[in-house]
Amino acid sequence: MKKLFLEEIKEQKIEGGIPFPRNLSPQQLIITGPPGSGKTTILNAINGWPEEGYVDISMSDWWRSPALANRPRELHFGVPFLGYDKAVPVYDVDSLDDSSYLEIDFLRVRLPPPKGSLLSGNFRKNIVVEFILLPAKQLYKLRKKRAEKGTHHVDADLTLQKVVEESDFYSALALYFHQSGMNVYVRNKLGGPPMRIKDESKQDDPFEIARKKNLPKQDIYHIHDQLRLKQRIMNRSWSARGNRELIDLFASLLPDALDAERCNIFLGTPGSEEAWLMSGTNLDSQKIKECRMWDQVNQVISSGEYMVHENMEKDKDFKTPGVNNPTLVLRNSLLVPIKSVMGNGNTGAIQLINKKNRKHFVEEDRMMLEKVAQHLELAIENVYLRREMMDFSEILSTEAGQTTTIFKIIMALLSVALIASLGVNYYLLAPPFMELLSILP
Question: Which end of the chain has fewer CB atoms surrounding its CB within 10 Å, N or C?
Answer without folding.
Answer: C
